[in-house]
Amino acid sequence: GLDPQRDEIIELAMTPFNYGLDGTVFSVGDSFQGLRQPSEPIAPEITAITGITNEMVAGQVIDPAVVATFAAPASLVIAHNAAFDMRFLQLQEKATGVVFHQPVLDTLLLSAVVHPNQESHRLEAIAERFNVTVLGRHTALGDALVTAEIWLRLIPLLQEQGIHTLRQAREAAQKTYYARLKY
């Protein structure tokens, strides 16, 4: 959807991975992607952006138990424009029974940390700067995979700025202009 206060989650995807401090990926789990039928029909403008139609989501339900495996307490959520996505998830907590308490890193905010003079921190712009191929833009799984690739490229740039811990990354991200956005 376009508005967390009005729209519902219609697609969810996650791609789990583990990586070393040097950014080397040493384990990748199975990605999850699921569609969900909202209580109201999908607006044409949302279909135009996502390609998801009412016919595609008819009868689809995302199993909260599957989502809960990705909401494990030991995990870290990495998302692009995380405030937007996390607001959707927060508003669905009661309905799904799934609560995300993990720390969150936002590639939009971290891009602003490492490239403060760039005009755009949209996912496509960051991907272009890092030479990351974007497939399936505005699909949950496509965006999750691109975000993972961007995160791995941000790690060494953050380290060059003396940012080596989760706390340091979160503090630096909160100092950016974009951290003020609320949904």
- Low-confidence residue ranges: none
Q: Helix coverage percent of residues?
A: 40-55%
Shape: globular
> Quick one: biggest sheet?
2 strands, antiparallel
Question: What's the end-to-end separation, in Å?
Answer: 12 Å
Kindly state the mean pLDDT as a whole number?
88
Main sheet: which strands, in order across? 1-4
| Count of individual beta strands | 6
Helix count equals 9
Q: Give me the Rg, rounded.
A: 16 Å
Briefly note the structural class of the backbone.
alpha+beta
Q: Please state roughly what percent of the residues sit in beta strands, choosing from under 5%, 5-15%, 15-25%, 25-35%, 35-45% or over 45%.
A: 5-15%
What does the model show?
- The chain is of the alpha+beta class.
- It has helices at residues 44-50, 54-57, 64-70, 82-91, 93-96, 107-114, 123-129, 140-160, 166-174; strands at 11-14, 17-19, 25-28, 32-35, 77-79, 104-106.
- The strands form three sheets. The protein has a two-stranded antiparallel sheet. Strands 2-3 form a two-stranded antiparallel sheet. It has a two-stranded parallel ribbon with strand order 5-6.
- Helix 6 packs parallel to helix 8 and helix 6 crosses helix 9 (166-174).
- The longest helix is centred in the last third of the chain and has 21 residues, at 140-160.
- The radius of gyration is 16 Å and the shape is globular.
- The two termini are 12 Å apart.
